[in-house]
Amino acid sequence: MRLITLALAVLLLLIQYPLWLGKGGWLRVRELEGQLNVAQEKNAALKSRNAKLESEVRDLKDGTGAVEERARYELSMLKQNEIFVQILGKDQPKPQSSGTPAPAAAPATPVPAAPSAMRPKS
């Protein structure tokens, strides 16, 4: 009787080995699920980025508003008869001067700011 019990216990352990440590075992499944979650998060971030880029391309193809906004923000371009006003907060440093005072008649080079900070001249 003792020999049969020992043989059954050994067979039980041999059957359990592939379930826990084999190719398709529980540990491998848990590891693959973790990799799947990481890949799904990365895909979601890339889909979001692609959607933003697609909408930007559509805006640039369809309207002139996006082109004008980019020219204003990135290239500091202004329309004719338009003045540039930049409001600095208390915690923002003042713009550095070049060291030599500019002539009074020459306007200063505009610093890029949000498009909402630009107002047409009245």
From TrEMBL:
Residues 1-3 are cytoplasmic. InterPro entries: Cell_div_FtsB (IPR023081), FtsL/DivIC (IPR007060). The keyword NAD does not apply. It is found in: Cell inner membrane. GO terms for cellular component: cell division site; cell septum; plasma membrane. Residues 89-122 are annotated as: Disordered. Residues 29-63 form a coiled coil. It comes from the Bacteria. Residues 22-122 are periplasmic. Keywords: Cell cycle, Cell division, Cell inner membrane, Cell membrane, Coiled coil, Membrane, Transmembrane, Transmembrane helix. It is a single-pass type II membrane protein. Belongs to the FtsB family. Part of a complex composed of FtsB, FtsL and FtsQ. This is Cell division protein FtsB. The gene is ftsB.
